[in-house]
Amino acid sequence: MIQATHLSKQYGANMALYDANFHIQKGEVVGFLGPNGAGKSTTMNMLCGYLKPTWGVVKIAGVDIAEDPLEARRHIGYLPEFPPLYMDMTVEEQLRFACALRGLPLKKAALKDYIESLCRRTQILDTRQRLIRNLSKGYRQRVAVTQLLVGDPEILVLDEPTVGLDPRQIREFRDLFLDLGKEHTIILSSHILSEISSICGRVLVFNEGELIADGKPEQLQEMLTGRKGLRVEVAGDRPGVLAVLRAVPEILSVETVQSTGEGRWEYQVDYPIGSDVRPAVYHALKATEYDLLMMKAEEVSLESIYLKITEAQEETAEEDA
Amino acid sequence: MRAVYEKEMRQYFHSVIGYVFLAIFVFINAYYFLLQNLMSRSGDITDYFQSTITLMMFLMPMLTMRSFSEEKKQRTEILLYTMPVREIQVVLGKFLAAESVFLIGLAVTLAFPVILAVCGSFQLWITVGNYLGIVLLMSAFIAIGMFVSALTENQIVSAVLSYVVIFALWYSYGLGSTIQDQTALELFNRVSMMGVYHDLIMGVLDPAGILLEITVTFIFLFLTVVAVRGKRG
Predict the structure, then answer these.
(1) Which tens digit of pLDDT belongs to each residue from B80-117?
(2) Quick check: B227 and B147 in contact, CB under 8 A?
(3) A233 with A294: CB under 8 angstroms?
(4) Which residues of A220-250 are buried (b: 16+ CB within 10 A; e: fewer)?
(5) Residue A317 to chain B, least CA–CA distance (Å)
(6) A102, A82, A80: which is closest to A150 by C-alpha?
């Protein structure tokens, strides 16, 4: 459905995106993850035909967007970071304008009904006659999403759609996206990581203008850090347990996470992808007086991945300074 | 194109700008008609048009200053360029809307030649020439204003720059008197917008001159499309 090949964008001496390659299938719901300035918005702007790539090709439904921008844009609805709404228009006027831009061949009465049905879906039926200027941030965002649905494009691209909304609105939006995801291909960028992991079946991670990882949310940590994590809970004195665990071959590092009770500690054990140290850990502990209480693969948390990326970035920045 | 045109018209008359423009436009025209024709008992419509034209030049950037600047500032332009419409349709829609507001104002002044005709003094070709001259010149100024507006996101900068360009074009005609060589002077007058305008208000409908003004308008509309595209390069 969406194919980006060697996609790059340069602003003067600054490389906003370098050589991104990805292919998004019909019906996929994909999250763009990365710190600010990582190239997420730039990529979205190029996918939607707003920016021209410096190099590379974007194909939407098989159509090269540089060759036939109009045909490609017909398949895409884009909600940029700042909702493109005219403050001096009413909600209905704004939506009529969007219908006209999409070239919907609707007569007056049919157009009114159509707009009404869209508004019902996003729950803004009561605000149709209000000026957008007078709407709250949450309602404006809903109007922008309604506008996105005009003409029912197959691909929806949303750049941080839930920024600035309250938790209840965020939940409503998430439900809406889950619902839309059943019949649309969706690309979504967000800072709210739980949102990405709950909606998206696939995540692309951007950092400093490069696409650094592409995969299922649960595979990401392994891909990014090159190591897997294990949580182990052991009863026994801490230095002794640490020494035993560190002596197990293939284990990269062992850290104490927290105390879980009298004489019990939880440890974080990292080991390389491609190996499994669990039997070795079990046998090592079994041979001692320490009791193994619990052992499980570390929960994948996008939060921690995100922090790792940003921390890495800060460290590089400090080194540069 | 129609979508953009209708949206622009709605915006002119949703905000005060359309009404303020028309009010000032009609006021200036009525005032000078009263002063130059009625009170001075002159039947020549050129007298009044010559006085108002410089003031009209001041008004045109009012119509075009927000054209693209405001879209950029409010970040609404992204909507126009990610929907299935061509840049040229956006530019033409906006141009025709500004042109329409101007023509509504000008239509009011059609009463003046009628008044003159009733009072017994009506020169058809001079009247036609004056109207044609104004429409062509102002269309070019609207196109120039739109081009400038596509370059900046600040309305005020957009208006001021439009004035600079328009006045440079307008007053460069005055420099013509310093040209000694007769052929050069003639050529200068032929390619000067003001020169063409002066021919027209005399009732001389020179096709080459008319073509020149239309060409200037189209060149600036084309440049606007280029500017709009270039920004997203």
Answers:
(1) 999 999 999 999 999 999 999 999 999 999 998 888 88
(2) yes
(3) yes
(4) bbbbbeebbbbebbbbbeeeebbebbeebee
(5) 29
(6) A102
Chain A, window 133-192: residues with a beta carbon less than 8 angstroms from a chain B beta carbon = 147
- The minimum CA-CA distance between A206 and chain B, rounded to whole Å, is 22
Task: Point out which residues pair with A17 in neighbouring strands.
Answer: A9
Report which of A123, A158, A163, A157 is spatially closest to residue A143, judged by C-alpha positions.
Answer: A123
Our measurement of the distance from residue A166's CA atom to the centroid of its chain's CA atoms, rounded to an integer in Å, reads 19
Walk across the sheet containing A210-215 and list its strands.
A76-79, A155-159, A185-189, A29-33, A202-207, A210-215
Chain B residues close to A147, C-beta within 8 Å: 79
State the smallest CA–CA distance between residue A34 and chain B in angstroms.
Answer: 23
Binary contact (B232, A85; C-beta < 8 A): no
CB of A121 less than 8 A from some CB of B: no
Out of A51, A100, A147, name the one closest to residue B6 (CB): A100
Specify the DSSP class assigned to residue B123: -
Strand order in the sheet with A55-60: A14-24, A2-11, A55-60, A63-64
Q: Is the pTM of this model over 0.95?
A: no
**Nearest-CA distance from A48 to chain B in Å?**
6
Q: Determine the Cα–Cα distance for residues B175 and B182; give it in Å rounded to an integer.
A: 14
Please list the ranges in chain B whose pLDDT falls under 70. Answer: 233
Probe site for chain B from A42, A50, A111, A154 (most B CB atoms < 10 A): A50
Partner residues linked to B148 by β-bridges: none
ipTM of this predicted structure: 0.87
Say if the Cβ atoms of B83 and A93 lie within 8 Å. Answer: no
Measure CA B32 to chain center.
19
Task: Indicate the domain borders of chain B.
Answer: 2-232
Task: Determine the distance in angstroms separating the CA of B30 from the nearest CA of chain A, rounded to an integer.
Answer: 31
Rounded Cα distance between B21 and B102, Å, is 8
Q: Does B16 touch chain A (CB under 8 A)?
A: no
At A310 the pLDDT is: 64
Burial tier of A49 (Cβ tally within 10 Å: 0-12, 13-18, 19+):
buried
Please report the residues numbered 71 through 100 in chain B whose beta carbons come closer than 8 angstroms to any beta carbon of chain A. Answer: 74-86
Q: What residue in A sits closest to B6 (Cα-Cα)?
A: A97
DSSP alpha helix (H) spans, chain A: 40-47, 69-74, 91-102, 108-121, 137-149, 167-180, 193-199, 220-225, 238-247, 278-286, 302-320
